[in-house]
Write a structure and sequence with these properties.
Length: 79
C-alpha cells in the first residue's frame, strides 16, 4: 500500500483533533502500529469525506472501516 500524504486530507474539512484519540485507541485495541492505523484512517477519512454530504459522522464511519480492514488483514495473515 502506498502511504497517504497529509495533503490527502480534505482542505475544507480537516480531520478533527479528537480523531488522534481514535487512532491511538484503535492502535491499542488492535495491537497495531500507530503509524499503520493513522495511514488507514486517513485513507478512509479522505474517501468518505469526498463523498459525504453530511460530514458529522465521517470520523465514526472511518474508524469502523479501519477496524474492519485491520481485522481482515489479521485474518488473512497480512498483519
Amino acid at each position: 500500500m502506498n502511504p497517504v500524504p497529509d495533503a490527502a486530507q480534505s482542505a475544507h474539512h480537516p480531520r478533527p483533533i479528537s480523531d488522534d484519540a481514535t487512532i491511538t485507541a484503535l492502535a491499542k485495541q488492535t495491537h497495531t502500529s500507530h503509524d499503520v492505523v493513522k495511514r488507514l484512517y486517513e485513507e478512509e477519512f479522505a474517501a468518505l469525506d469526498d463523498k459525504a454530504t453530511v460530514k458529522k459522522f465521517v470520523h465514526v464511519i472511518a474508524g469502523r472501516r479501519v477496524k474492519q480492514r485491520l481485522k481482515a488483514m489479521k485474518a488473512s495473515g497480512r498483519h
